[in-house]
């Protein structure tokens, strides 16, 4: 099969690999599309270096194929698999989506939402799941600010917060204003003109470029500040350092900082499917790239040129 093959950190090429064999609890997927996000870049580059120490491979990447978000058709089921059969259309996460075939544990797969293309479905799992998990405690009528609202997680964050009945302010740069407005934000702030004002019950920070004191100032006294990620940290720990610093502040401040670590799993993807099928959530896919240009797709996201989501189609 054709696949993007990655033997060393920071280096990958289109090549040929054997079709993988599904193990117990896994299915073989004929991949139709693979979502791209900042995490894909982290696992291609091996940066920040912390990713090499937390299980993704010290000397080189453990997975020979990058790509985590996936949609496709079940081609074969492994031992002990129930609930899925060949021909089923699914979406979820795996290790190695940038390929014609991949294996995925059924604990990380759900049925593809009705009405979504494979490209749209592949744009959902990690970004949509992270937004859903970050906004769990939102109640109707609360004020929510989504920072980085025109990015992958943020574009779902705006829609999930609206679905929960919140008053939503989306904060983004000029090129993303139109998208964020179209996603249903009550207010859209172009921070290149003026930074956001007001106080919020919950801030979903997907941008990571504001100081913790600035976030606290924009939060109600008992508000929650969910730190999704940051690309502004150093080469060793990246955005983790900022989130750890924030959590360490919790005993001393009235607001609550939450360091979000999303867990990609079938139950969350099923919740997303229900929201999508109810018309409350729609992936904002800006662009698709063919498999042969998968690395360009990752670069498009890494260089901050993407708006909403980017997908590789196979
Ligand atoms: N905690 C978790 O489990 C989890 C899960 C998924 C992702 N993440 C992390 O969360 C962050 C957001 O992910 P994403 O997929 O939404 O990324 P994305 O699509 O690149 O969106 C991030 C948005 O943040 C803004 N931004 C501000 N400063 C930035 C900077 N220095 N570099 C890049 N973007 C910047 C950009 O919007 P403007 O151009 O409008 O400023 C961009 O649209 C990333 O750091 C990612 O690694 C964490």
Automatic annotation (TrEMBL):
All residue ranges annotated as the Enoyl reductase (ER) domain in the record: 12-312
Cited SMART domains: PKS_ER
Gene3D superfamilies the record matches: Medium-chain alcohol dehydrogenases, catalytic domain, NAD(P)-binding Rossmann-like Domain
Domain of life: Bacteria
GO molecular function, one term: oxidoreductase activity
Record Pfam families: ADH_N, ADH_zinc_N_2
PANTHER family: ALCOHOL DEHYDROGENASE RELATED (PTHR11695), RETICULON-4-INTERACTING PROTEIN 1, MITOCHONDRIAL (PTHR11695:SF294)
The protein's name in its UniProt record: NADPH:quinone reductase
UniProt organism field: Lentzea aerocolonigenes (Lechevalieria aerocolonigenes)
């Amino acid at each position: 099969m054709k696949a993007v093959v990655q033997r060393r950190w920071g280096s990958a090429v289109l090549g040929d690999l054997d079709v993988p064999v599904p193990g117990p609890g896994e299915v073989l997927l004929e991949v139709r599309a693979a979502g791209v996000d900042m995490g894909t870049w982290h696992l291609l580059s091996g940066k920040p270096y912390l990713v090499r120490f937390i299980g993704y491979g010290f000397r080189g990447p453990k997975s020979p194929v990058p790509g985590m978000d996936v949609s496709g058709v079940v081609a074969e089921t492994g031992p002990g698999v129930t609930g899925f059969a060949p021909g089923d259309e699914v979406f979820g996460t795996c290790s190695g989506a940038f390929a014609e075939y991949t294996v995925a544990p059924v604990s990380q797969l759900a049925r593809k939402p009705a009405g979504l293309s494979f490209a749209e479905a592949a744009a959902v799992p990690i970004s949509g799941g992270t937004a859903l998990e970050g906004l769990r405690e939102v109640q109707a009528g609360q004020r929510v600010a989504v920072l980085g609202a025109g990015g992958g997680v943020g574009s779902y964050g705006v829609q999930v917060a609206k679905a929960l009945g919140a008053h939503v302010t989306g904060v983004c740069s000029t090129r993303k204003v139109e998208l964020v407005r179209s996603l249903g934000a009550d207010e859209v702030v172009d921070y290149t003109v003026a930074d956001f004002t007001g106080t919020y019950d919950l801030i979903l920070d997907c941008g990571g470029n504001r100081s913790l004191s600035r976030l606290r100032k924009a939060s109600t006294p008992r508000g929650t500040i969910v730190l999704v990620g940051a690309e502004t940290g150093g080469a060793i720990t990246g955005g983790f350092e900022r989130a750890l610093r924030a959590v360490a502040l919790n005993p001393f401040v009235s607001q609550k900082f939450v360091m979000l670590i999303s867990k990609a799993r079938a139950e969350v993807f099923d919740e997303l499917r229900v929201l999508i099928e109810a018309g409350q959530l729609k992936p904002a896919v800006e662009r698709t790239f063919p498999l042969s240009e998968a690395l360009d797709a990752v670069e498009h996201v890494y260089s901050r040129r993407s708006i909403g989501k980017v997908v590789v189609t196979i």
